[in-house]
Design a protein that fits this description.
The chain is of the alpha/beta class. Helix content is 44%, strand content 20%. The chain has 3 domains: 4-68, Arc Repressor Mutant, subunit A (Orthogonal Bundle), CATH 1.10.10.10; 89-164 and 271-303, Periplasmic binding protein-like II (D-Maltodextrin-Binding Protein, domain 2, 3-Layer(aba) Sandwich); 167-268, D-Maltodextrin-Binding Protein, domain 2 (3-Layer(aba) Sandwich). The strands form 3 sheets. Strands 7, 8, 9, 10, 11 and 12 form a 6-stranded mixed beta sheet that branches. A 5-stranded mixed beta sheet has the order 4-3-5-13-6, with helices on both faces. α5 (99-116) links the parallel β3 and β4 (121-126).
Length: 306
């Protein structure tokens, strides 16, 4: 369903050859050459330079491809929705989320949506903040549920606060520090290995700030991961410490195994937000999920107190 012009351009870009691209597309080379000339006239700039070895994309061609890929993803999403409607379904939703959302908020929202709209198909991508923002901008994601940051959000996006979900220091219920009281002894938290997300994420600087306020050294993680399955296995050994959103620790997966230090001085404030494109309307299916997400977040706000 991708427009022929974009499909033709992409094949030329990948093959760097009109002949190879025409064979791949199953059309004649003169017809493909004519299509390229018409596209360049419409764009108002040359998209390729002819070299002895083939076609080299110009800076205009490079820029055009970036937008072409985003448009193609939108058409693919449209095709999925049309297919779903034709098959008596109700469309599809592409969601991005970070760890805290995928462990509690998103699954609960999916279950709530399934109860009223069982035909909607949901695609869920878990990732770091920068990747999720990029997905919403490109159109590969309808929305992203993630932690609010101090970083300036691109002007094409809008952020909607959902609920407060602080990071707390977590451990196995059998951990020696399960009854830890700070009492000015922040260095005691250094006596055990830590599991934290990668350094390029948004949490690590906040952890450094937290320990700086305690006049203590920030922990150097023994393990870096965003995998909750791996983290839970490690934590259940009773040896590791980590920082986790409170809602995660109260989830059905974590609550039988983990506990946390209930001390405001060892807590990092965190707001969960929904990021959407400012100038792009949500599909009916995505709009339905967005409504369910807000209702689920409202219930979560009432349940994050211990």
């Amino acid at each position: 369903m991708i427009p022929k012009t974009l499909d033709y351009f992409e094949k030329i870009y990948l093959h760097r050859s009109l002949n190879k691209a025409s064979v791949d597309l199953g059309i004649s080379q003169p017809a493909l050459s004519k299509s390229l000339k018409a596209l360049e006239q419409e764009v108002g700039a040359p998209l390729f330079i002819r070299r002895s070895w083939g076609l080299e994309p110009t800076k205009f061609g490079q820029a055009f491809r970036a937008h072409s890929l985003a448009i193609s993803k939108q058409y693919q999403s449209l095709e999925r929705d049309v297919h779903a409607l034709l098959n008596a379904q109700l469309g599809s939703v592409q969601i991005g989320a970070n760890l805290g959302a995928t462990t509690s908020l998103i699954p609960e929202s999916i279950l709530a949506l399934a109860a009223i709209r069982p035909g909607i198909r949901i695609s869920l991508l878990e990732g770091l903040y920068e990747d999720l923002v990029g997905g919403v901008i490109s159109g590969s994601l309808d929305m992203a549920v993630t932690t609010a940051t101090s970083l300036e959000l691109p002007t094409v996006l809008v952020s909607e606060p959902l609920f407060e979900d602080p990071f707390v220091i977590a451990m196995a219920k059998s951990h020696p520090l399960s009854q830890f009281v700070l009492d000015g002894n922040g260095d005691a938290l250094q006596d055990y290995p830590w599991v934290l997300p990668p350094d390029q994420g948004i949490l690590r600087p906040r952890v450094v700030e937290l320990f700086a306020r305690l006049d203590a050294r920030a922990p150097v993680p023994r393990v870096e991961t965003v995998s909750f399955a791996a983290l839970l296995e490690l934590m259940c050994t009773g040896h590791y410490l980590t920082m986790q959103p409170l809602s995660v620790l109260q989830s059905r997966l974590a609550s039988p195994h983990l506990t946390w230090i209930d001390d405001p001085a060892l807590t990092i404030a965190r707001t969960v937000t929904c990021i959407r494109h400012r100038n792009r309307e949500l599909s009916p299916a995505a709009d339905e999920f967005h409504d369910v997400l807000k209702n689920t977040a409202q219930k979560t706000r009432a349940g994050t107190s211990r």
